[in-house]
Write a structure and sequence with these properties.
Shape: elongated
Distance between the termini: 40 Å
Number of helices: 5
Structural class: mainly alpha
Strand content: under 5%
Largest sheet: none
Oligomer: single chain
Order of helices and strands: HHHHH
Number of strands: 0
Length: about 110
């Protein structure tokens, strides 16, 4: 199956990516780090840093999270030390749920 040439994203997803990009740019400038320095530290290209700061939805989530982490931008929790507790809670909740979702099949009544 061919990959679609362009993908559409919800407004909320676009806003979240844009917000994270702005937070990354703000932190980079506050720490007086150039795009080149950040790219080198993260092991990515300068172009990816620029795209991440612009909220480009095509950037890999791992690369964007790494940029944010290197700059101290909070991800999911204001305090990075609380992340393990949030992770443990999410894993505990998920362990109580079914592993997969299956829709029940409707029985077709084809007797006339």
């Amino acid at each position: 199956m061919a990959k679609p040439s362009s993908r559409t994203y919800s407004r909320q997803s676009q806003d979240a990516a844009r917000l994270l990009g702005l937070m990354i740019r703000t932190a980079r400038i506050e720490h007086q780090i150039t795009v080149e320095e950040l790219a080198e530290r993260a092991g990515v290209s300068r172009g990816l840093v620029y795209r991440a700061e612009d909220g480009d939805m095509g950037c890999t989530i791992g690369a964007v999270f790494e940029l944010a982490s290197l700059l101290g931008v909070p991800l999911f929790a204001p305090d990075p030390t609380s992340m393990p507790a949030h992770l443990a809670q999410a894993e505990k909740t998920l362990s109580l749920m079914p592993r997969a979702v299956h829709h029940t099949r409707k029985v077709v009544d084809d007797e006339f």
